[in-house]
Amino acid sequence: MARKPLDYEELNENVKKTQYAVRGELYLRASELQKEGKKIIFTNVGNPHALGQKPLTFPRQVVALCQAPFLLDDPNVGLMFPADAIARAKHYLSMAPGGLGAYSDSRGIPGIRKEVADFIQRRDGYPSDPELIYLTDGASKGVMQMLNTIIRNERDGILVPVPQYPLYSAAIALFGGSLVPYYLEEEANWGLDFVNIRQTVSEARSKGITVRAMVIINPGNPTGQCLSEANIKELLQFCYHENLVLLADEVYQQNIYQDERPFISARKTVDEIYKVASIALSPNVPGQIFMGVMVNPPKPGDISYLKFSSESKSILESLRRRARMMTDGFNSCRNVVCNFTEGAMYSFPQIRLPPRAIEAAKRAGKAADVFYCLKLLEATGISTVPGSGFGQKEGVFHLRTTILPAEEDFPAIMSSFKNFNDSFMAQYEGYSRM
Hints:
Blueprint: H1 13-16, H2 25-35, E1 41-42, H3 57-67, H4 77-80, H5 83-95, H6 110-124, H7 139-150, E2 156-162, H8 167-174, E3 178-183, H9 194-206, E4 210-217, H10 229-242, E5 245-249, H11 274-279, H12 285-295, H13 305-331, E6 336-337, E7 346-347, E8 350-351, H14 355-363, H15 368-380, E9 382-383, E10 385-386, E11 399-402, H16 410-429
Parallel strand pairs: 1-9, 2-3, 2-4, 4-5
Antiparallel strand pairs: 6-8, 7-11, 10-11
Helix pairs in contact: 2-15, 3-5, 3-12, 6-12, 7-8, 13-16, 14-15
């Protein structure tokens, strides 16, 4: 007798309550509009290549040769690929005797982990042990492995910054833990306020929550700030005294758009994650090679150095200009206030919604920032993410957008946003009706 499929009520409760705003209501509506023929600018996800950014040449050459090693036996390979890319491909293939189709060590290929450790040592100025390096299929998988290791039950709490990247709230819910939010201070450029953080920890413990770890995102997502050295030093002291595992999300460490607050790593090693990593058997091998190339790029004197350096510099300089254009554009709009995007790839402006707009949102059954972002999407095709998807203080509203659209498109995009916003504000501050 055939078994009936699982009913919704039989699914894992942790999965059912998990939310992920970046691919939520706004994204689904944007996809519908795109199918209907409307031009959509997807600024909801940090997806550079989808918005026209060209990939760096050298890493693609190396991985192409590793994926198709028979090219290395072609007598004309030197006409198609530079000598340093050929040498690097042979270097990585020697580390992976089974090629890219074979599993690697669950922690990643030892030689590439050594390259990552060497990069960290160059960056931070003191030794790094490759045996404590774990390569994962992107940062999200690493976050999930760590949270899966730390969380035992619903009484285990994880301190997470608000606004936060929703991966954290989703993963904590999935693994059955408790999110303990601490608020970043928007007026202090999204910095850390340890008086409030200590109070948050005390309140959580009074409710029976064991606070086991603290997440920081630096440079910030969605907030785009770079933490000051003073904040980071206080952070390390705080985690040490409170006996907390520090989970430092430093994905965007190379994406810095100002010189006053450089990126400083809050590096700290942790143990007992090998079993969790082993469940996945092997991280993606081509991805490991990309990692190796990025932490060990062409050096001065290498054939590919000038091209790699020029491409990287061009991308970062353009992002720096776009960060300024977007911040200035938002701050020129009525009832919009935005901190400068110091790093990462996002802008998180505060939208000061009139009371009548908030009332209209309630009548429509929407959160106020969702209501605003949907109106923006319908009017302009600009797809963003409401601030409520990341967490924000009660009665304060934001949206998150990337700074990734093509630089030449920025004036038109910001003009379109300004025209929509100023019309929206006039409509809801005045006496006209929808």
